[in-house]
Amino acid sequence: MAAARGSSGLVGVLQGSGPRGYHLDPVPGAVLQPPRPSRCDEDEFLALNQGTMTVMEYRDCFLQLARYAPAKVADDREKQEHFMEGLNDYLKYALLNLRFDDFNHLVDAALNTVRKHREKEVRKRKFAPAASDSNIHPRFQPPQQQQHWPPQQYQQRPQ
Q1: What is the pTM of this model?
Q2: Can you give the residue ranges of every domain in the chain?
Q3: In terms of DSSP H, where are the helices of the chain?
Q4: Residue 7: per-residue pLDDT
């Protein structure tokens, strides 16, 4: 038997059984040590943007990476501000002047805004004319009439 440290930071004892011949048994009294945040993870958090992610995917990624920059999300207001900075522009501008009680209310508002935006796009597509050859008409041009002045009925007759 030999002491080893597992991927989770737990100290254990290697024993000679298991599918690969060894498995990790925890040592009584051993303390789980979480992995230390690296500078790279904090930089990744600070550079995080929604991009092509959905709001829920962005939220999950944001919360995952926020663990590596606890000072940047120490209070709820800072957390909201940082989350807003990473949202896509149309969402950011739609939510910019609103205040939310907490981070979850901000996420809910972002989800509602996306839903309303999609509904608006569906309505636009529904009423937009289809682009087929049979529906293409030339612009209306009023017929050009020759104007004679004065009109014939008021012209003087020769005497």
Answers
A1: 0.57
A2: 1-31, 39-121
A3: 39-46, 55-66, 76-86, 89-95, 103-127
A4: 47
